[in-house]
From TrEMBL:
GO terms for biological process: peptide transport. The lineage of its organism: Eukaryota, Metazoa, Ecdysozoa, Arthropoda, Hexapoda. The keyword Ribosomal protein does not apply. This is Uncharacterized protein. One of its GO terms (molecular function) is ATP binding. Residues 120-504 form the Solute-binding protein family domain. InterPro entries: ATPase_P-typ_TM_dom_sf, ATPase_P-typ_transduc_dom_A_sf, ATPase_P-type_domA, KH_dom-like_a/b, OsmC/Ohr_fam, OsmC/Ohrsf, P_typ_ATPase, SBP_5. Belongs to the bacterial solute-binding protein 5 family. It comes from the Eukaryota.
């Protein structure tokens, strides 16, 4: 198979990344970013915030006979561009470079890797390590066939060289803490007290690595899968100097892929299959190309049109597709939480105030109504189903007993206590958040709910781009901020050790000697006693959350997505690098006519001018159809084959019989007819389905007590008050009573530019709220909204067909009756009139019946019309029916204003148009004004007549 290109898109920070398919195969990535902090502690190296998950979607081409496609297309969303391929140096500036981490996991490989169950399995190592009785020495043998992309063997020295670099202060490694807390002499080397060569690692020979630990670490083998423990080819790296890892040309690879066409901060590059990779037989693609594109909705549209095989959903999209047969919820370990800055002023140093805020948050309502992607309301900081008791197997979350849950009375009581302790009655707190839709929605919801439960606590929401937010966050210039965390390795300590008083990651400035002591015990004194260590970690989380309320966990992320069930090999990890895609593939067997499943379609029968029947067509003829054709024409086919063979032998060259050609033509015509009918009908169904999916189903109803409840749109009454958050689909028609925003009204009027709205302005159901939050009052019943009327018109159009469709439907019943009468007469009279045999007469009668079948003619008349009407309706152009649509071809004039006498001149008409467009700020209006000028200046009052 010739190599095709697999195209991936990795987005610049904050960009939504999607792109049109270049080839017939595609994989799409969705990277979601998180605020990252980095700071050097006095005695311990800081570890950057753990990478947030990289959620991705994919498109993989179908292949024949079970063979894997050799090319894929990758597309990423919401991620920073890649900074470095050096596994020891991750550039941590304004946010964590998790794009680099994910890329490194595809092009580099360590001693071990994770399988699809997140179990540690050998990679460059031949087997799991031999561990000494005291659990302090790990001996690991390397496979002899592991090679670099230049053909050099991967040796033990490559690992030693990389690890020594990782603890050298001059290198400024981001993850030195992983070595400092585990390997002998690493801390002393990092502080400049010892030389890198004294690190507790050795290489007895080229294929053996020995590691000496400072204490038993139960998760150390799992830790070796992390990118910081990847090898580096010493000779190549020294030759490149400071340029190593800054481009695809200055990096050497030992993973499943190599990289091509990448330089620092570039937004395009290609993954190429590594011909020297030891496990290349299991790599199913040859090339992956990456580039930057934008828009989440684009991905959904591409999935609906079979351009993508996997797409990650969020917010309204998650709710819209939650009942779809291909909808999935994928478990994840990312935790979202509120950071209470206890180092800024006196307010959040007060435990009672932190407790009051945490207990005032209804997490269940938040994940259901704001996130809507299946995420789980968090009661603690260690996620569900992540780590289990080593002795009993009990899940940490279940055994912990920590319950930070919504409790209005307890929250108000805690606030009362805080007021007494702080001698203050009102609290205004600065809430710092990123300018992404999800985080703005989160901030607005949390601020609203806390203030509802605790009227004297108000959040001043400060929305900033990621760059500026990081500066404020690292400077401690905030009271509350939203954080996200995903683990580096599979152990609870990866969530808990960042809150010790001497941690470089303790940006909430939490200080608890009791907590520090428990973490110290879990890391050191109790490290070799699994039972005691487990107890230490349970107690530590209890102090952090149930006693001190140092942070407020909000949710455990779940990934909502649509995925084609034929796609396999998508490996999502719960820790470490988020994804591995060397096994991604999609296979399918060549279509076989005798095994092809068929699809049912129904023609409408709501009135006498239409009919109803159900039958199977599928995308190709099924077994019954093929059998009927063979039985009816077998002797013609047999005659054609016999004559072709005899004539070819006689002429000494291939001479096909005309019956052979007619047989091929008959089968070809049947296949083409079925394909065209299926295509037309499928497109019609798809357009109507997409239009119906735009119909709102839920609303945020404001209750009499001020709380907000998600309700079905059908129960709304005129006068109800609704809350609309940024990004929400507006549930029904109404008027804004508080707030300002911009609204995408393209579903109503076809305009692509959002319209600014403020108090008193009308809003319409099915439109999308933009960057503001507002309260509206319902002014119409759900059956009387503008969008409801659009749907009514589309439904009416099904019975108002074009002239052609109407004629066909009127003719069809009579035509069928005539054919059913003529065929028996044809068979019965054949022997007497044409001197046919009875066999020949029956055969010719069947041929006449098949050729006269009206089904395809009738079925093909309506779908194209319905597809056009529904597709236009989505763009704000309404047709009452097919007859009006058909008349477009003969339009000779347009009546601009039917109330006018119709006698104006062309210039008078232009004057009116110019006067109207003066009131608009749309680019098309500006273009019209530039093109035309009014001879007689008119002043017109222009009103929006939508919905009247």
């Amino acid at each position: 198979m010739s190599m095709e290109m697999l195209v991936a898109s990795i987005g610049a920070c904050g960009a939504y990344v999607y792109e049109k398919v270049l080839t017939n195969s595609q994989v799409e990535f969705d990277f979601k970013q998180v605020e990252i902090s980095y700071e050097r502690a006095e005695t311990k190296p800081a570890k950057p915030l753990s990478r947030v998950e990289i959620v991705f979607s994919l498109r993989v081409a179908e292949t024949d006979q079970g063979k894997a496609e050799r090319a894929l297309k990758l597309i990423a969303k919401n991620c920073p561009v890649m900074q470095s391929l050096d596994p020891e140096i991750v550039v941590v500036e304004n946010e964590e470079d998790f794009t680099s981490f994910n890329a490194q996991n595809q092009v580099l490989e360590g001693l071990y890797q994770l399988n699809d169950q997140d179990e540690t399995i050998p990679a460059v190592a031949k087997a799991l390590p031999e561990i000494s009785a005291d659990k302090l020495t790990y001996t690991i043998s390397l496979r002899a066939d592991a090679k670099w992309s230049n053909g050099d063997p991967v040796t033990a020295q490559d690992f030693l060289y990389a690890w020594r670099r990782a603890v050298t202060p001059d290198t400024a490694p981001s993850y030195a803490s992983l070595f400092v807390s585990s390997i002998k002499n690493a801390d002393e080397i990092y502080q400049g007290k010892m030389k890198p060569e004294e690190l507790g690692v050795e290489a007895p020979d080229e294929h053996t690595v020995v590691i000496h630990l400072i204490k038993p670490i139960p998760y150390f083998t799992s830790l070796l899968t992390f990118e910081t423990f990847f090898p580096i080819n010493e000779a190549f790296a020294e030759k490149q100097g400071s340029d190593y890892g800054t481009s695809s040309e200055t990096t050497l690879y030992n993973g499943a892929f190599t990289l091509s066409g990448w330089e620092q901060n570039s937004d395009t590059w290609q993954y190429m299959k590594n011909p020297h990779y030891w496990d290349q037989e299991n790599v199913k693609v040859d090339e992956i190309q990456t580039t930057v594109v934008k828009s989440t909705s684009t991905a959904v549209n591409l999935y609906q049109t079979d351009e993508l095989d996997r797409v990650v959903l969020d917010g309204e999209f998650s709710k819209q597709y939650k009942n779809d047969a291909e909808f999935q919820n994928q478990n994840d370990t990312k935790m979202g939480y509120l950071r209470f800055n206890q180092g800024r002023g006196k307010l959040l140093k007060n435990t009672s105030l932190r407790q009051a805020i945490s207990l005032a948050i209804d997490r269940k309502t938040f994940v259901e109504n704001v996130l809507g992607d299946g995420s789980i309301a968090a009661t603690g900081f260690i996620p569900q189903n992540f780590v289990q008791n080593p002795e009993t197997g009990e899940d940490f979350r279940k055994e912990s007993g920590v319950q930070q849950t919504f409790n209005k009375e307890a929250a108000q009581e805690a606030l009362k206590k805080a007021k007494s302790e702080l001698k203050q009655d009102e609290f205004n707190l600065v809430y710092l958040t990123k300018d992404t839709d999800t985080e703005k929605k989160t901030a607005e919801y949390l601020a609203s709910q806390v203030n509802e439960v605790l009227p004297d606590v108000k959040f001043e929401i400060t929305t900033l781009p990621s760059n500026n937010l990081q500066e404020r966050y690292l400077a401690g210039d905030y009271d509350i901020a939203f954080g996200q965390w995903m683990p580096d390795f599979k152990d609870a300590i990866t969530y808990l050790d960042m809150f010790t008083s001497d941690s470089g990651l303790n940006h909430v400035n939490y200080n608890s000697p009791a907590y520090d002591q428990l973490i110290e015990a879990a890391v050191n004194t109790d490290a070799s006693d699994e039972g005691k260590r487990w107890s230490d970690l349970l107690q530590a989380e209890h102090i952090l959350l149930a006693e001190d309320y140092a942070i407020a966990p909000i949710y455990q992320q779940q990934i909502a997505l649509l995925q084609n069930p034929k796609v396999t090999g998508v490996v999502k990890h719960s820790f470490g690098s988020p994804y591995s895609f060397k096994y991604i593939q999609k296979t399918t067997k060549r279509r076989n006519y005798k095994m092809e499943t068929t699809k049912t379609h129904t023609h409408d029968c709501t009135n006498k001018e239409s009919h109803s029947h159900e039958h199977d067509h599928g995308k190709s003829p099924n077994i019954s159809f093929i059998t009927a054709m063979l039985l009816s024409g077998y002797h013609i086919i047999l005659e054609g084959i016999t004559d072709t063979v005899n004539e070819s032998e006689k002429q000494k060259k291939f001479i096909p019989n005309v019956h052979i050609l007619m047989t091929l033509a008959a089968f070809g015509a049947a296949i083409i007819a079925h394909f065209l009918e299926e295509y037309a009908e499928g497109r019609s169904k798809r357009e109507i389905t997409n239009l119906l999916k735009m119909n709102p189903t839920e609303a945020r109803l404001i209750q009499p007590d001020g709380s907000v409840k998600i309700v079905d749109v059908s129960i709304l009454k005129i006068g109800d008050k609704l809350q609309v958050l940024n990004g929400d689909q507006i549930a029904t028609d109404g008027v804004i009573i508080s707030g300002n925003t911009s609204i995408d009204e393209s579903s109503i009027n076809g305009e692509s530019i959002p319209r600014e709205k403020t108090v008193g302005d009308e809003v319409f159901g099915s439109t999308i709220n933009g960057n503001g939050t507002f309260t509206m009052e319902v002014t119409k019943d759900s059956s009387e909204t503008v969008f409801a009327k659009i749907l009514q018109l589309v439904n009416q159009s099904q019975s108002n067909l074009s002239k052609t469709a109407t004629k066909i439907q009127k003719l069809e019943p009579r035509y069928v009756t005539i054919v059913l009468i003529v065929v028996p007469l044809f068979i019965a009279l054949g022997p007497f009139i044409f001197n046919w045999t009875w066999e020949e007469s029956f055969y010719r009668g069947m041929v006449f019946l098949i050729s006269a079948s009206p089904c395809a003619l009738a079925a093909s008349a309506v779908p194209a019309t319905l597809s056009a009407i529904s597709n236009l309706a989505k763009r704000g152009v309404l047709f009452k029916g097919g007859s009006y649509l058909a008349n477009l071809a003969s339009i000779k004039a347009v009546a601009f204003d039917k109330t006018d006498s119709g006698e104006q001149t062309e210039q008078q008409f232009i004057d009116i148009v110019v006067a109207m467009e003066k009131t608009a700020n749309h680019p098309l209006a500006n273009a019209i004004l530039e093109k035309f000028s009014a001879i007689e200046a008119l002043n017109l009052n222009v009103d929006n007549q939508i919905g009247t």
